[in-house]
Amino acid sequence: xxSFLNNLFSSPYKKYNxxxxxxxxxxxxxxxxxxxxxxxEFSMAAIQANxxxxxxxxxxxxxxxxxxxxxxxxxGMIQQNNNSMNxxxxxxxxxxxETDFNEFxxxxxxxxxxxxxxxxxxxxxxxxxxxxxxxxxxxGDSRAILGSQKGIGKRLVVKxxxxxxxxxxxxxxxxxxxxxxxxxxxxRYQSIEVKGLIExxxxxxxxxxxxxxxxxxxxxxxxLSEVVTPTFTRPLLSSQPDVYSTVLRDSDRFIIFGSxxxxxxxxxxxxxRVVNTSPRDRIAERLVTLALEKGAAKRGKKYRDLIKIPxxxxxxxxxxNRNYGFRSAYHDDxxxxxxxxxxxxxxxxxxxEINSYTGYDYAVQQSEFTNFxxxxxx
Length: 378
Fold this sequence. Notes:
Layout: H1 22-25, E1 29-37, E2 40-47, E3 58-61, E4 65-70, H2 87-112, E5 121-122, E6 124-130, E7 133-139, E8 143-150, E9 155-160, H3 170-178, H4 185-195, E10 204-205, H5 212-215, E11 242-247, E12 252-258, H6 260-263, H7 268-277, H8 283-297, H9 303-306, E13 334-340, E14 355-358, E15 364-366, H10 369-376
Antiparallel strand pairs: 1-2, 2-13, 3-4, 3-14, 4-6, 5-10, 6-7, 7-11, 8-9, 8-12, 12-13, 14-15
């Protein structure tokens, strides 16, 4: 395997001590301390708001590769493509996820007359560092930003690598209406938004909004809470990912991955400044804490006030007014992963352990990269 990222030097940062202990007192909080990967370190943190933790994340550490997924990833993609990686392969991976998801929903309906799987969806943000190149694909409202230091003064440069498809973005609203010029787009968009059915124009799943086979069949009864008016017979949503790749350079310092719940509260620039000027210890916790403080402040509270509020996905009434007796009124589920890009490959000559780390789980599993390396050496 080719090594990469030679001659990087660590970014300077101001001394900053993270003294806020509210995160450790929060029963809905989870974090993983710094873990070494082949060209640096990473840390993870998450906070739950809903009845079931809807965010899923995973980091796979290889000897000379790194996989990050905010959602579930397909780690067999490299070996199946002759030990190579490119943007086409990433698109194929996302397409296969979509196909499998919708096939499951179709079978559930046809064989068992179950419709609930037609209303299940998820975003998908996947990244792999492979042979010196960073590849990213995204569907939904998660986001990944690259922090670099450039020029004589080491000016911080922040780049969002792929679009997020949130309806909060004006260009996504415009894109949505342009895709359906022959429909009453405004009423259709408002129906989706007001009912709170989904917050993104692209996702994995939600087969009912993508396949006319569901809505055309009289036996397919749509729950009133899921009805979108007027009736539609062609896809409203898409699973097409935005894909990005770049060769990592000496100036690249870190990557911040976050679920939609994080980026609703913190800007790209704010998150990057915090990472660039803070010690690494507990950095993911720090970012999540900042988001929670922002969410609490919007309702005239502090983070310490949220700790006593239980998790729930309950929303009172149909007018969008949230029940402030539950955490979901102040913030969504949040996941943050910070990946540092360091000076030397396998620092101090220590090879990283080939492990799999899953969000909101303290267990450490053997990574599927193990099978990859074993098969590659046969």
